[in-house]
Amino acid sequence: MAHFAKLGSNGKVIQVLTLDNKDMLNADGVEDETVGQQYLETHNNWPAQMWIQTSYNTSGGQHKNGGTPLRGNYAGIGYTWDEDDQIFWPKKPYASWVKHNESASWKSPIGDAPALTAEQESQNTPTTDAEGNVTAEPTHKWSYVWNEANTTWDLTDALA
Questions:
Q1: CA 86 to CA 79: how far, in whole Å?
Q2: How many CB atoms lie under 10 A from the CB of residue 75?
Q3: Which of 18, 28, 135, 160 has a 20 to 30 Å separation from 45 between CA atoms?
Q4: CA–centroid distance for 102 within its chain
């Protein structure tokens, strides 16, 4: 089964349809995106160039089964098609974040959040006995959250 994203204005994905692989075979019996686009134009009354093939198995620039990733991410409704980079982009999470083409994801302008310390990790973990039964709940729930106003990663404790 093949998947195609229907593009609206400004390259926004407005629908994703499945297409039987047999409906996108060229004269040599090889799957061909342009054949699929023509099929979709004929049967959906939407211009062929506004249908872009997407892979259900691609996310973050990786193919989950080890295959070749297709267009960075599986297209979802509201994603944006970047024709220059050939990537479907999810909604930008924060105004300051930038595209990272290699991972087909948005990154903060200062990089990833810092790692928690070993002490913070241990405080996030419940205490268990030898049988694996929880004997004490975590004392904290540490994590870093993005602070858009200051463009920083702020350490927070959800249990505080």
A1: 13
A2: 29
A3: 28
A4: 12
- CA–CA dist 136, 30 (Å, integer): 59
Q: 134: which residues sit within 8 A by CB, 6+ positions away?
A: 126, 127, 128
Model pTM score: 0.85
β-strands 134-136, 152-157 pairing: unpaired
pLDDT digits (tens, 9 = 90+) for 98-146: 999 999 999 999 999 999 999 999 999 999 999 999 999 999 999 999 9
b (16+ CB within 10 A) / e for 128-153: eeeeeeeeeeeebebeeebeeeeeeb
N- to C-terminal Cα separation, the chain: 48
